Amino acid sequence: MGETEGKKDEADYKRLQTFPLVRHSDMPEEMRVETMELCVTACEKFSNNNESAAKMIKETMDKKFGSSWHVVIGEGFGFEITHEVKNLLYLYFGGALAVCVWKCS
Predict the structure, then answer these.
(1) What does DSSP assign to residue 75?
(2) 3-state secondary structure of 89
(3) What digits encode the pLDDT tens for the residues 61-90?
(4) For the residues 37-63, what does the mean pLDDT come to?
(5) How many CB atoms lie within 10 A of CB 70?
(6) CATH number listed for the domain at residues 23-102
(7) Where does the sequence pass through the membrane (predicted)?
(8) What does 1-59 look like in DSSP terms, one character per residue?
(9) What is the pTM of this model?
(10) How far is 17 from 10, CA to CA, in rounded Å?
């Protein structure tokens, strides 16, 4: 019985973590929503390949909002970046997966 309870708890946790949780953003609302949707799509499409997900996000952001976008996806990392004002999004998705998207020229 303990094993089935553990699986149920894990399933509940994953269900709760299917939405993006924004840690920090200074993007305008419309850009933020669009970027969040893009991040979710990329992370779901390439759930086992963070590099491909980051590439998809970067290429799409470069096309939509001009070049010089940078993307980091992973677990357990720290960072310090310089970015253009109103061009940063840092969110969590799927539990421990962190996504940071920013633009700098």
Answers:
(1) S
(2) strand
(3) 999 999 999 999 999 998 999 999 999 999
(4) 96
(5) 15
(6) 3.30.740.10
(7) none
(8) -HHHHHHHHHHHHHHHTSS-EEEEE-S-HHHHHHHHHHHHHHHHHTTT-HHHHHHHHHH
(9) 0.82
(10) 11
Dist. CA 104–CA 83, nearest whole Å: 5
- Intra-chain end-to-end CA distance of the chain, in Å: 56
Using the 8-state DSSP alphabet, how is residue 92 labeled? E
Contact by Cβ (8 Å): 99, 36? no
Residues in the chain: 105
Structure tokens at 78: 């720290």
Pairing of β 69-74 and β 97-103: antiparallel
Tokens of 32: 């933020």
